[in-house]
Specification:
With about 120 residues, the chain is mostly helical. It contains 5 helices and no strands. The relative contact order is 0.06. The mean pLDDT is about 85.
């Protein structure tokens, strides 16, 4: 347990600082609310009224989200390779080059088909 004591102390200090900061900001911070501050903010664009059910999202939104997840997950495979790069040798290098080439081909295909354009 002695080995974990510094980690627990540091975690306690971090949690105490976070709680203290939030509480003090609420107590001594300015409280000048106006209509602009209470309004929804969407990247500088005035929010458009939506129907009661939430409205429909364009399919491009979901396609872009799926592409992000696919490419993000593929990049996660680079971390274990980078950690064990020395022990894998030339075999690991060739395999990773093939993997990156496959990812690049998929990226080029999506780009060529217009999957990255937001129109």
């Amino acid at each position: 347990m002695n080995a974990y004591t510094p980690i627990l102390v540091l975690g306690g200090i971090a949690a105490a600082f976070a709680i203290f900061s939030v509480v003090m900001a609420a107590i001594i911070g300015p409280k000048r609310y106006n209509r602009a501050k209470l309004d929804a903010y969407e990247c500088g664009i005035e929010p458009t009224p939506q129907p009661a059910g939430g409205g429909r999202f364009p399919i491009k939104y979901y396609l872009t989200a799926m592409l992000f997840i696919v490419f993000d997950i593929e990049i996660v495979f680079l971390y274990p390779w980078a950690v064990s790069f020395d022990s894998l040798g030339i075999f690991g290098l060739v395999e990773m080059l093939l993997f990156v080439l496959t990812v690049f081909v998929a990226y080029a295909y999506v780009w060529r088909r217009g999957g990255l354009e937001w129109d």
